[in-house]
UniProtKB/TrEMBL annotation, chain A:
This is ATP-binding cassette domain-containing protein. Transmembrane segments: none annotated. It comes from the Bacteria. GO terms for molecular function: ATP binding; ATP hydrolysis activity. InterPro entries: AAA+_ATPase (IPR003593), ABC_carbohydrate_import_ATPase (IPR050107), ABC_transporter-like_ATP-bd (IPR003439), ABC_transporter-like_CS (IPR017871), L-arabinose_ABC_transporter (IPR053466), P-loop_NTPase (IPR027417). GO terms for cellular component: plasma membrane. Its main location: membrane. Residues 6-243, 257-509 form the ABC transporter domain. NCBIfam families: GguA. The keyword ATP-binding applies. Pfam families: ABC_tran.
């Protein structure tokens, strides 16, 4: 048996209210390419953050053994000193600086504080050669493509004498050719004896390059197996990624689904707001009936949030085309107030950035989207407003000492309730909920689910976007799958399970 | 007793700057040997600071939306110059001239608002450019000279007093206005309390309620009594009162005000909640332009001349007033009342130090320290 370069033993990491990692064991052999996979939120990134010292020693339980020595990293610098380098999904390069400057950022080739440019450039040339990148070291980062930037990141890692390279979704933003290059490069490094850990959703490429696969699910290690000796298939990995018990997580529901299509999206396409040649949404068709809860499943980058926001008053994207039908009649939402007027509400996936005015009170947040309800000729009836806010507060059980409390002081679950309450106050017919339970604890999740069920029972139509497949399976009557901006499936509850969803969600990548 | 203690600690935090203002007033009252609060000087403080208070109100709105306006001093100077041309050189009727000037101010605000809101250029840059543009245009309009004197009707806006029909030594009309104001205030408080009771909200206990009304009534009447001992109520004070009450109402009681706060607090969330963020930003700048014009008119009238140097550093006084008054540069926080208090803190400092004969050099330095101290106090207070 080959020597282990890394062993992470019984790693447990809790965030307030959430156990992100639960007794995880993770072993990597010297000189292999190790694939780490799991659903969004399974704990992959958290595990890598523990390893690289982003979550410092003492904030988690368990031990890390690297090269046979126990490590207690307090920050990223300490792990990098030992040769553990992580390349994040969002590249950490500075666009205005040159390739050479980026590679040696924080590690400048200097003598007595004066940078030795000749050495910097020569060293950069050597590194670029290693990663097969033929560009001028003095070129600015903003002038090279994403694929090349990814290679610069790897060159930067090499400059730190990397022993264990961790790549988080390295090919997510790359086209086929660039991905191919990158994977070949990893294989080349492997021949030279370097060890890498790769996180990816693209099963096909993982199977191609990796030697061992570890599957994480709900913060636990499910399986770890060698690819060659076990004849691993995509189907097996998918099954390991998703299989779990769903009972008792979801509240009971009174069904009240009518046959009329309350809201319909037809032939909906949109382009990236900055790169107007890049199609983000491609001919999307979907509908939701009265009282129905419809899910949208898709991996990160599939275009879920973009779809919701482009519908909601063109809040995302350029060159949007397609039709919207509300109650059978065609409508256009030229901006957010227009969408709200037509009875559509959108609860953003990021409540702090896009949902709440954090410096404002619970009351002011609750009434913001529909102030005219408590106003006469644009003059507020502040007493009426207090009454309405109080009634919403008790109806959806927001735990706060007072409705005058600033929302910044509330817990995540209660903040989410405020955002939901804000949209309930607009009395919508259609609610688009984008990751309504992200980052909140189990108890609060249950309450949010209950609220969603109640809304559906009142005859509201719900479109629910979520990265957590069990959540969609537990809540929805029907689930659309989205992959690279296209709807790849429309699956009724009875036929839906995690395997089928995952299959449809990754359809374009496997074909 | 605990209730009273809570009330006091709460209010110290809430009205920290009011308390500071009272402290500064008492300090200078002692240091100047009682000159600060003489009727003549109180009237002076109001008239000297009126144009800064007008600017501070507009600046408060700008800062609440998370922006800044560096051009207000130049715009005020430019409008003063234009008013000189319109009223002195062209001899237009005063009211026409004033309206044209306010309109021009609004157009200037629209010009800057356009670049900030619709072209997304940082307001710092747009108004820095505006500062240069309108200072330059001031010189162009005046051809480097001073235009004077203004017609009397125009000057009364900033330097005349309400006439007294009674002709007594003490200005009776002012006393009567004070009484009427306090009466209106009492009625307002009673109405608020009645609504609160109707909705069965929590109200302060009755003795405290009476105490509050008593204190404010006394303040109003002492103030008008002091004014009455000199020339009475200056017209510009009425303008200020209308602006303060009007803008306070807009910011607290209207959909527009709520949208401005929301926009400043979190522009993304506001936009996704249906606030027309660009339009709102645009109009806040239009408003600032109009108020800068009004400020320029008041200043020109007080000086009785349109000069190229008018409005120098007004923008910094206005920004300082807003910040001392509790505005936060991250946006979303601040009150009109705070801006007025902030302007008065700066105004009393100026006035008090001048009476004491402190040189302009030390005045600047001390004002700088007070500005820094006020904000530091606020930041530390919030972190507690």
């Amino acid at each position: 048996m080959a020597e282990m370069i890394l062993e992470m033993k019984s790693i447990t990491k809790t965030f307030p209210g959430v156990k992100a990692l639960d007794d995880v064991n993770f072993k990597v052999k010297q000189g292999e390419i190790h694939a780490l996979i799991g659903e969004n939120g399974a704990g992959k990134s958290t595990l890598m953050k523990v390893l690289s010292g982003v979550h410092p020693h003492g904030t988690y339980d368990g031990s890390i053994i690297f090269h046979g020595k126990e490590c207690e990293f307090k920050n990223i610098n300490e792990s990098e000193d030992l040769g553990i380098v992580i390349i994040h999904q969002e590249l950490a390069l500075i666009p205005e600086l040159s390739i050479a400057e980026n590679i040696f950022l924080g590690n400048e080739q200097a003598r007595k504080g004066v940078i030795d440019w000749n050495k910097t450039i020569t060293e950069t040339k050597k590194l670029l050669e290693k990663v097969g990148l033929k560009v001028d070291p003095q070129e600015q980062i903003k002038n090279i493509g994403v694929g090349q930037q990814q290679l610069v990141e790897i060159a930067k890692a090499l400059s730190k004498e990397v022993k264990l390279l961790i790549l988080d979704e390295p090919t997510a933003a790359l086209n086929e050719e660039d991905s191919e290059n990158l994977l070949n490069l990893l294989l080349e490094f492997k021949k030279q004896g370097m060890t890498s850990i790769m996180i990816s959703h693209k099963l096909k490429e993982l199977l191609k390059v990796s030697d061992t696969i570890t599957v994480l699910r709900d913060g636990q290690t499910i399986q770890s197996y060698g690819v060659k000796e076990n004849e691993v298939t995509e189907a097996r990995i998918i099954k390991d990624m998703v299989g779990r018990d769903l009972s008792n997580l979801f509240p009971d529901r009174t069904y009240n689904i009518k046959d009329n299509k309350v809201f319909e999206v037809k032939n909906w396409s949109a382009y990236h707001p900055l790169d107007t040649e890049k199609k983000i949404l491609d001919d999307v068709n979907l509908h939701v009936k009265q009282g129905e809860i419809v899910g949208i499943a898709g991996l990160m980058g599939a275009g879920r949030t973009e779809l919701a926001m482009s519908i909601f008053g063109k809040s995302y994207g350029k060159r949007i085309t397609g039709q919207l039908y509300k109650g059978g009649e065609e409508v256009t939402f030229k901006d957010v107030p227009d969408a709200v007027k037509h009875g559509v509400a959108y609860v953003s996936e990021n409540r702090k950035e896009y949902g709440l005015i954090l410096v404002d009170s619970v009351k002011n947040n609750l009434t913001l989207a529909n102030l005219t309800k408590v106003a006469n000729n644009n003059i507020l009836n502040t007493s009426q407003e207090v009454v309405e806010a109080e009634s919403l507060k008790s109806k959806i059980n927001i735990k706060t000492p007072s409705i005058q409390q600033k929302t910044i002081n509330l817990s995540g679950g209660n903040q989410q309730k405020v955002v939901l309450g804000k949209w309930m106050f607009t009395d919508p017919d259609v609610l688009i909920l984008d990751e309504p339970t992200r980052g909140i604890d189990v108890g609060a999740k249950f309450e949010i689910y209950k609220l969603i069920n109640e809304l559906a029972a009142q005859g509201k139509s719900i479109i629910m976007i979520s990265s957590e497949l069990p959540e969609l399976l537990g809540m929805c009557d029907r689930i659309y799958t989205l992959c690279e901006g296209k709807i790849t499936g429309d699956i009724p509850k009875e036929e839906a399970n995690q395997e089928t969803l995952m299959t449809y969600m990754t359809q374009n990548w496997r074909s | 007793m605990d209730g009273l203690k809570n009330l006091i600690t709460n209010n110290i935090r809430k009205f920290g700057m009011v308390i500071a203002l009272v402290g500064i007033v008492i300090l200078f009252q002692i240091l100047t040997g009682g000159i600060l609060l003489t009727p003549l000087n109180v009237t002076n403080i109001i008239m000297q600071n009126s144009y800064i208070i007008v600017l501070a109100i507009g600046m408060m709105l700008i800062i609440i939306t998370g922006e800044i306006d560096l051009s207000v001093g130049s715009v005020a100077a430019f409008i003063g110059a234009v008013s000189g041309v319109l009223l002195v050189t062209l001899d237009l009727p005063v009211i026409v001239g004033i309206l044209l000037c306010l309109l021009l101010g609004a157009i200037i605000g629209a010009w800057q608002g356009f670049w900030v809101a619709y072209v997304n250029i940082p307001s710092f840059i747009v108004t820095l450019a505006g500062m240069l543009i309108f200072r330059g245009l001031t010189l162009v309009v005046l051809e480097g000279r001073t235009i004077a004197p203004f017609p009397n009707g125009f000057r009364s806006l900033s330097s005349s007093f309400m006439p007294d029909a009674f002709g007594t030594e003490l200005h009776m009309l002012t006393i009567i206005i004070g009484v009427l104001l306090s009466l209106a205030y009492v009625l307002y408080e009673l109405r608020v309390r009645r609504t609160d009771l109707k909705y069965s909200f929590k109200t302060t206990s009755f003795p405290l309620f009476v105490l509050k009304i008593f204190i404010i009534t006394v303040v109003i009447n002492v103030f008008t009594f002091v004014l009455a001992q000199y020339e009475g109520i200056p017209y510009v004070l009425i303008v200020l009162l209308v602006l303060i009450l009007g803008y306070t109402f807009v910011m607290n009681k209207t959909v527009i005000g709520r949208h401005i706060y929301a926009l400043g607090g979190n522009i993304n969330a506001a936009q996704l909640s249906g606030v027309k963020t660009k339009k709102m930003k645009f109009w806040v700048f239009v408003n600032m332009g109009t108020l800068a014009a009004l400020s320029g008119l008041i200043f020109a009238g007080r000086l009785n001349a349109a000069t190229p140097q008018a409005g120098n550093l007004f923008e910094l006084d206005a920004i300082a007033a807003a910040v001392i008054g509790g505005a936060s540069f991250t946006g979303g926080v601040g009150t009109i009342f705070g801006a007025v208090i902030g302007a008065l803190v700066m105004g009393v400092l100026n006035n008090g130090m001048s009476i004491m004969g402190i040189g302009i050099d030390w005045q600047q330095a001390i004002k700088g320290l007070v500005l820094l101290g006020a904000v530091a106090f606020d930041v530390l207070n919030k972190n507690k």
